[in-house]
Design a protein that fits this description.
This protein folds into two domains: 164 residues, NAD(P)-binding Rossmann-like Domain (Rossmann fold), CATH 3.40.50.720; 105 residues, 6-phosphogluconate dehydrogenase C-terminal fold, CATH 1.10.3660. Helix content is 49%, strand content 13%. An eight-stranded mixed beta sheet has the order 3-2-1-4-5-6-7-8, sandwiched between helices. α6 crosses α9 and α9 packs antiparallel against α10. The protein is elongated and about 70 Å long. The two termini are 42 Å apart.
Length: 276
C-alpha cells in the first residue's frame, strides 16, 4: 500500500511518522513549502516527496479547512483511492466533497490530539497514542474505506474510535474544543495578566494552555462552525451573568448553588468518571 500525506505540519508529519514507525507501507509527503518536504525526507519522517497524488492508494489531507476543501476539489486521485481529511470541522468538508460525484472514497476524520506549538519540528510519532479519533459517516460513506482508515489509526496507536454524523461532530466540537480556545483567549486579555509571575498555579495553566493559537486556522474553524459556536458562547455568557449577579448581590447561597450545580455536571461526565 502506498500512502501520501498532504500537509506536513504537526498533525500531518505526526501521521506520516506514526505510519512509518508502525507499518511497512510506503509513506510519502507533500507540503506547500517544499523546504518542509525536504526536511521531512532528510529526517526520515517520509520515504519521499509526492509528485502525483494519483499514484497513491490512501491520501491523508492534513491542511486547514479551506485549503483542504480546495485540495479535495482540485487534485487528481487514483480511481477508488481512499482520501481522509483531518479537519477540525466536518460538515462543510463533507458537503463540499459530496456536491458532485468523485472517483475517490472520502472518509472524514478528526484525531483528538495535538500540542500547543505546531509545525513539523513539534511532530511526534507517538502523538496519537491513546488518543480518541472521530470518524464521520453518512449515506455516501464507503464502509470498506472507513474500516481501512480506522485500522490505520489503530496502527498509529490511537485509542477509542468514535463514529458519528458530521453535524453531530461539529455541534460537540463547538463546545469541547472551539469554545475552550475562545474562553482561554478572552481570559488572557485582563490587565491583571501583566506581572502575574509567581502568582500562578495549575488552574492558571489549565485556563491558558490553549490561549495561543494559529489565528488564521482557528478563525476558519470558528466561522465554518459559526452557528454551533455562537450558540455555545451565548449559553456561556448567560451562565457567567448568573455568577456576576450573585457576586454583585452578595448572595452567597446563590453562589453555592451555582458552584454545586457545576460540580455535579462535572462529576457526571464520563471522561471524569473513568479517571476516578
Amino acid at each position: 500500500m502506498r500512502i501520501a500525506v498532504a500537509g506536513l505540519g504537526i498533525m500531518g508529519a505526526s501521521v506520516a511518522r506514526a505510519l512509518k514507525a508502525n507499518t511497512g507501507y510506503t509513506v510519502d509527503g507533500w507540503n506547500r513549502n517544499p523546504g518542509v518536504t525536504g526536511y521531512a525526507v532528510d529526517k526520515g519522517y517520509i520515504d519521499g516527496a509526492v509528485s502525483d497524488f494519483a499514484e497513491y492508494d490512501v491520501v491523508f489531507v492534513a491542511l486547514p479547512p479551506e485549503a483542504a476543501m480546495e485540495f479535495l476539489e482540485t487534485r487528481e486521485f487514483k480511481d477508488n483511492a481512499v482520501v481522509a481529511d483531518l479537519c477540525g470541522v466536518k460538515q462543510p468538508v463533507e458537503k463540499a466533497v459530496y456536491a458532485q460525484k468523485r472517483n475517490y472514497r472520502y472518509v472524514g476524520t478528526h484525531p483528538m490530539a495535538g500540542k500547543e506549538k505546531g509545525g513539523i519540528k513539534n511532530s511526534d510519532e507517538r502523538l496519537f497514542r491513546g488518543a480518541n479519533v472521530i470518524l464521520t459517516r453518512c449515506r455516501h460513506t464507503d464502509e470498506e474505506a472507513l474500516n481501512l482508515v480506522a485500522n490505520l489509526y489503530r496502527k498509529m496507536g490511537c485509542g477509542r474510535l468514535l463514529l458519528c454524523p458530521a453535524d453531530y461532530h461539529d455541534a460537540k466540537i463547538a463546545y469541547t474544543s472551539q469554545l475552550a480556545h475562545i474562553v482561554s483567549s478572552a481570559y488572557l486579555k485582563s490587565d491583571t495578566a501583566e506581572g502575574c509571575e509567581g502568582f500562578t498555579g495549575g488552574s492558571f495553566q489549565d485556563m491558558t494552555r490553549v490561549g495561543g493559537v494559529d489565528e488564521e486556522m482557528w478563525t476558519q474553524l470558528y466561522f465554518l462552525n459559526a452557528n454551533n459556536l455562537a450558540g455555545e458562547l451565548e449559553t456561556l455568557i448567560s451562565n457567567l451573568g448568573e455568577y456576576l449577579t450573585a457576586l454583585k448581590d452578595g448572595d452567597e447561597k446563590k453562589m453555592q448553588e451555582l458552584l454545586r450545580a457545576g460540580t455535579a455536571i462535572r462529576n457526571a461526565l464520563k471522561c471524569y468518571r473513568d479517571k476516578n
